[in-house]
Batch of 2 targets.
Target 1
Amino acid sequence: MQRQIFTDEHEAFRGTVRTFLAKEVLPHYEQWEEDGIVPREAWLAAGRQGLLGLAVPEEYGGGGNTDFRYSAVLAEEFTRAGVSGLALGLHNDIIGPYLTGLATEEQKRRWLPGFCSGETITAIAMTEPGAGSDLQGVRTSAEDKGDHWLLNGSKTFISNGILADLVIVVAKTSPEGGAKGLSLVVVERGAEGFERGRNLDKIGQKSQDTAELFFNDVRVPKENLLGELDGAFLHLMTNLAQERMGIAVAGIAAAEHLVEITTRYVKEREAFGRPLSKLQHIRFEIAEMATECAVTRAFLDRCIVDHSEGTLDAVHASMAKWWATELQKRVADRCLQLHGGYGYMTDYRVAKAFTDGRIQTIYGGTTEIMKEIIGRSLLA
Ligand SMILES: Cc1cc2nc3c(=O)[nH]c(=O)nc-3n(C[C@H](O)[C@H](O)[C@H](O)COP(=O)(O)OP(=O)(O)OC[C@H]3O[C@@H](n4cnc5c(N)ncnc54)[C@H](O)[C@@H]3O)c2cc1C
């Protein structure tokens, strides 16, 4: 089915992203995967190309365009290219809204120009060894010391954890407040007592640096509180819908791409004297996956448009996230099976998509948590 949500401007932007990937990313990508990290130069190149801070107002160096369809194009093209390491979606769509929506004028002037140029790489640190799905279990604390916050605790699984220059940290500011006692504080590279653990060894997304972060008596300036004191929970709830949409958009794009690759493969690969595609079972497999992708695409495109117009609610973003990522997981598994032994070889695209994509149903809120959000809202 012809997609109807993009204009010529969006398609021109798609061309720019493809050129960027071909020139600045794909020639180096294997090396980045081996290194477990991308060089800072790649972020600067993305900044020069105008791919950072798409929604940041122009006066701070951004693109000044809050149409989420541009973010969707970026996520789709990175996914189709099999690139997970250079986490522009995390920076633009997950962290960006915290800075544009919550920062004071002084903070915007301090942080946004570097955010848009690629000089300031960002991360958001919610998860702790003892608190993932349940953020009420956060133990990292920021104690009010008059002229600064004294930050103590640790975070884990933080994307961009090694590269980040600016980390938004979820910390307890009112010990008795539960979910209502959490705030967002910004820790900058070089702060005394801020240390990073090793780059964690993952089964996929090898060039994406993911790390533990440690805060030992870090003095965070008072002017680095982001948003309302004790207001983190509300800020997170507001921004998590966009995070989930970004992940969902990548999920359906990955599933569609896998079906395309596998359709080509089964036409070429022969068994029992004829192409695999001549076997009815194989045709049914492709037919089922293509149908599931087409149905999901219609829902996702509607969610993308609604989100661009500011009308998508948290429940529909959660539906999009769990549905598209679970589809991606199922499709990756079935496509790998259809590739036989070749599907298990890391130089085959389907193998990489299988391991790179597996995290999608876990981060940004697990499938189970998405169903909790939806169920609670329906049964309230
Ligand atoms: C590669 C990677 C990158 C990440 N990037 C970041 C990042 O940048 N910033 C950040 O803050 N975090 C990040 N995370 C953390 C991620 O968001 C968490 O791993 C995720 O939210 C799940 O938390 P958990 O690992 O503690 O699992 P748990 O919360 O311990 O969950 C374990 C299992 O129990 C289930 N479960 C938990 N509660 C319920 C419930 N109420 N009902 C039903 N089932 C439930 C879960 O669905 C899951 O299946 C990242 C993780 C990975 C692996």
Target 2
Amino acid sequence: MTEAESKSTFLNQMNDQGNQIQRFSFDNTNVRGERVMLTNAYQEIIRRKDYPAAIENLLGEFVAAVALLRDIIKIDGVLSLQAKGEGVLSTIMAECDEQQNVRGIAQWDPNAVMPNTLPLQETLAGGYLVITMTPSQGNRYQGIVELTGDTLAECLEQYFFQSEQLPSRIWLTANGSQCSGLFLQRLPNEQAKENDEDAWERLCHLAATTTTEELLTLTTEHLLHRLYHEEEVRLYEPKPMQFRCSCSRERTQEALMSIAPEELKEILLEQGVIAIDCQFCAEHYEFSEAEIAPLLGDQGFVH
Ligand SMILES: [Zn+2]
């Protein structure tokens, strides 16, 4: 292998490791974990709008969190995590599907003074967090979480405790280039597998010593070695993650059905076509009058 080849292999590995989610567990305990780390997939999301730095960071936390949640809940379909409120930020959301495709978006008040950090309770005044699971088959399910904590991680820990009665700890961080998340959960002691009673406390205590820098830069293997070199850690196969938007011409056309025919006609009269940009990926879709004729109601065409 030439030097150039070995360098490119190294970069490819870094790139792969930079966008993946990986499960792990600790032998002889009931504790399981997940680590997600995203670089390009996260950058693709934030480069689509001129986000202030604080929103880029919070959006990164949402993206890391939604990837963790989908893999933990193991839903075959889409999981979305959305917060709405009336503060500086009006909406922030991220979603992830079973192929580990992520996308995300935030809307904010452009006239507001943007602080360096965005404590959730304050930023989304009177807001709440909604977790929506849309399985490929079956009914959609929504869980609503009050914004009781200042960080997304605190709110999600609360969610796991309330909805599944499972003690869970989450660490999330992002810096505009990378976003990362670490998750630990103590499963019920059904198989009396846990003969190590202090395990949960000890493993959480060690995880809490992770620095933001380590969470953002270390590969999962290195991070787990740094935290748990004295524990018996079992690492599972990592799964690659990427940015991909699920929008399509068909879905966009379906979305036009929620607009009143009168309104569509008005736009056609003014602009000649119906133009819609996807908010997630900025893909531009245009529909002619003939294409959306069935949506225009009984009176049919404008001209
Ligand atoms: Zn799109």
